[in-house]
DNA sequence: TTTTCATATCGTAATATTGCGATTATATTT
DNA sequence: AAATATAATCGCAATATTACGATATGAAAA
């Protein structure tokens, strides 16, 4: 169906899945890394750095904005993007919690 | 196109994206949480716990196996699934590194 | 050997994602 | 006002994902 049955999962599980989507495509990983590396906010420089069309980069930025992990400040004719600290922290906590909840002991070797 | 241009990204970026996919669907988050919660490996109990058809659960397990974060031990007529410690640790490191690489300072307010 | 059980795989349908060219929107510059 | 520059959106095509019923598989139990 291609349609996730979100209603049968907890809000936490759905949120983790959404946060994970921010990192679930190499282009978005690259964008996030670039936004962090250049302390200053990067804008359409992303299009130059990535070998992707402007429309494609814009679409990935839109998805990252939807998740909330970045936000853009319009500064015509440019838009300055940057990491959204509270949501980044939310992701840090969420992944830290779930990844830290496994004690390393696996039964079927 | 629906076809990711993996060749224009680094191996590290592609791997992070793949590891993130393990958590990018609530059903897979739920499966991983169940595998951790019950120290003993869960098998088709997953089908009972999740409100998803057996074929659907099996497909998610296949994806998690492809990523390498779980592995199954055939114990006819059941299959015992569990977290694969080295890959789980790889994910912990990878997400810890990227999520820890942002110092909290965001330029646009 | 036939049944039975648990799981994997197949086939199919519906929706989502990825990517890009073309166009639109918005505000500055000339 | 017209031209320019940047980024968002539209429309489209191709592939991927999600989900499930039905069937196949493989080994134990009857």
From TrEMBL, chains A, B:
<keyword id="KW-0805">Transcription regulation</keyword>
<dbReference type="InterPro" id="IPR036388">
    <property type="entry name" value="WH-like_DNA-bd_sf"/>
</dbReference>
<dbReference type="Pfam" id="PF01022">
    <property type="entry name" value="HTH_5"/>
</dbReference>
<keyword id="KW-0238">DNA-binding</keyword>
<keyword id="KW-0804">Transcription</keyword>
<dbReference type="InterPro" id="IPR036390">
    <property type="entry name" value="WH_DNA-bd_sf"/>
</dbReference>
<feature type="domain" description="HTH arsR-type">
    <location>
        <begin position="8"/>
        <end position="106"/>
    </location>
</feature>
<dbReference type="InterPro" id="IPR051081">
    <property type="entry name" value="HTH_MetalResp_TranReg"/>
</dbReference>
<protein>
    <submittedName>
        <fullName>Transcriptional regulator, ArsR family</fullName>
    </submittedName>
</protein>
<dbReference type="GO" id="GO:0003677">
    <property type="term" value="F:DNA binding"/>
</dbReference>
<dbReference type="InterPro" id="IPR001845">
    <property type="entry name" value="HTH_ArsR_DNA-bd_dom"/>
</dbReference>
<dbReference type="InterPro" id="IPR011991">
    <property type="entry name" value="ArsR-like_HTH"/>
</dbReference>
<dbReference type="GO" id="GO:0003700">
    <property type="term" value="F:DNA-binding transcription factor activity"/>
</dbReference>
